[in-house]
Amino acid sequence: GLQTVGIFRVGSSKKRVQQLREEFDRGLDVFLDEHQSVHDVAALLKEFLRDMPDPLIPRELYGAFLSTATMEGPAQLDTLQLLLFLLPPCHSDTLLRLLRFLSEVARHAESSWDPEGREIPGNKMTVSNLATVFGPNILQKEKPGEKDAGALNFEDSAAIILVLQRLIEHHHSLFMV
After folding, report:
1. Which of 109, 143, 158, 151 is nearest to 7 (CA)?
2. Quick check: 64 and 36 in contact, CB under 8 A?
3. Nearest-angstrom CA–CA distance, 91 and 44
4. At the topology level of CATH, where does 54-175 sit?
5. b/e map of 131-163 (b: 16 or more CB within 10 Å)?
6. Residue 101, by phi and psi: left (phi above 0), alpha (psi -120 to 50) or beta?
7. Stated pTM of the model
8. Residue 131 DSSP code
9. What is the per-residue pLDDT across 40-71, written as a single tens digit (0 to 9) for each?
10. Are the CB atoms for 111 and 121 separated by under 8 Å?
């Protein structure tokens, strides 16, 4: 689905996403192949990240990660790297794999041409678009359903997007010891 235009942005079937989620929740072997809608699987991934009991970046580190948005250059990257080292191993490993995947999706944002000169459409999901979609699911101030959850102010939203952009763009060096 890397060439699917609007992956992670185009709507999905709530019914099919719910069915997939129930299959995963019951521990069934779920096969994601060409018979599944790319948009349904994308929506399920976003939903999974949003509804995790503990987000990939723990809530205790929310403020610290957001504070890096006002930094620039090496100081910002050094601080992000130190904060990433504070993550529990399971969170760190999962976040790294997610960031690698998002980076790969972003590499297919622009249209390209095959050897025969046919256009291969880009998915239009730039790093900025991906950070906008995934940022609130990875950096959460409150638990879903809590008072004020989802009611981010503009400054926090902008900072979340900027921080996630940096994480996607520099994941290869940020996770290097």
Report:
1. 109
2. no
3. 19
4. Phosphatidylinositol 3-kinase; Chain A (1.10.555)
5. bbbbbbbbbbbeeeeeeeeeebeeebeebbbbb
6. alpha
7. 0.87
8. H
9. 889 889 999 999 999 999 999 999 999 999 99
10. yes
